[in-house]
Structure prediction request, 472 residues.
Amino acid sequence: MTQQIDYSEKIPNNVNLAGDRRLQRALENWQPRFADWWLEMGPVGFQDNEIYLRTAVDVGREGWAHFSHVKLPDYRWGIFLSEPEEDRRIGFGEMKGEPVWQEVPGEFRTDLRRLIVVQGDTEPASVEQQRYLGKTAPSLYDLRNLFQINVEEGRHLWAMVYLLHAHFGRDGREEADALLQRNSGDPDHPRILGAFNEKTSDWLSFLLFTYFTDRDGKYQLGALKESAFDPLSRTCDFMLKEEAHHMFVGASGIARVIQRTCEVMKEYDTDDVRPYGAIDLPTLQKYINFHFSVSLDLFGSETSTNAANYYSAGLKGRFAEPSYEDDHVLVNDEDAISEIVDGRWLETSRPKITVVNEQLRRSYIEDCAKGMRRWNRILEEHGIQYRLDLPNEAFHRQVGIYRDAYVAPSGEILSESDWESSESNFLPTDSDRDFVISLMQPVYSPGQMASWIAPPVSGIHTQPIDYEYVRL
Ligand SMILES: [Fe+2]
Ligand SMILES: [Fe+2]
Prediction:
């Protein structure tokens, strides 16, 4: 049973850690390693500044978070699981309808541990990728949002480490240690997934990362929330609550970039906004193309026997599994996927269970498209003709069935030489990146914004926009 979160304990939790001395000691041993990692690989600077952060205090529907100024190293990272659902049953796969598991079944131990490790690896990875961004924040409001996301990704690491320690014995503890030993971009010990080894060197990339890559996180967590392994399900359920803010930072942040660009376009009656310190729309489109395509890779291959096995075993479902109107076993159904065969698009039918990754990806793409429509509405409201688009899902892929194809953002299949001559129109060039980086001048007075981004619509929690979100 869950209980209130106890903040008098060394590790705040609602899993009755005090009732399991061995586990408590093991996690208290891991805690200083986490603290070292935070100082070594977490945000550069600002560790002594007070930052207006939210901390989880309850897992219930109402008032789950508390806001106050805290120093980053004093943030109370804890272990929080959502309320258990009474008589919860497995919702999909071969064991559909059976009671969910509170312990890991031996035959699925390796697969479950792998799923948890891969998810856990992404959490500290993004903190590492973003560690230098504090130096160039466009406002105190944004600086605070960056750190809020960073501490919560740290907490998501705690969430996965708890599962490893509590349910996987010695190899679980070893995996928990390894989560701090791999580092983003480290040539010898890189993070597991490609997108998490890319640099997040500027705030435009950061905002798009939170829009596209944190949204991949939402879909992965949503799929794991359906898991028959109940502690994993409840952990992910609560993580999703925190994740919503990360995507808000991206969606509202890019909306503010577009707002600012529109204002400059109108004021100077030009598309060429770069001289005025704003980001031109074609450059933004190229950044979208990049972040969307690397995020699609995170879903794995379109057809996957691993994903099919996870699904039939009940380990990982689809996003909002109950909303699918099929039998949730999928062995007798077919689903069509688009392939490129001999230089042409071809719809092919596959056993539905082999394309669950693709189904998860489709829900994700629909969700991405919603925010794009809101961004385009800003352009429309300013009477600007230009429209932003999601590139075709086969564009610029390193993983899956499109890996070896050259496909334009429009979906047109290209030859390798056509691709090479057009690539600079599709993806940010070095000079685009240099330009964006040149805009990244820190703005640290309350209420002031950098030249390339409009102010937010409102402040954080109940505070005004010009609040001192970070005390410098
Ligand atoms: Fe996360
Ligand atoms: Fe996140």
Notes: The two ends are 42 Å apart (CA to CA). Residues 123, 153, 156, 217, 243 surround fe (ii) ion (ligand 1) (CB under 6 Å). Residues 125 and 196 are 6 Å apart (CA to CA). The chain is about 45% helix and 10% strand.
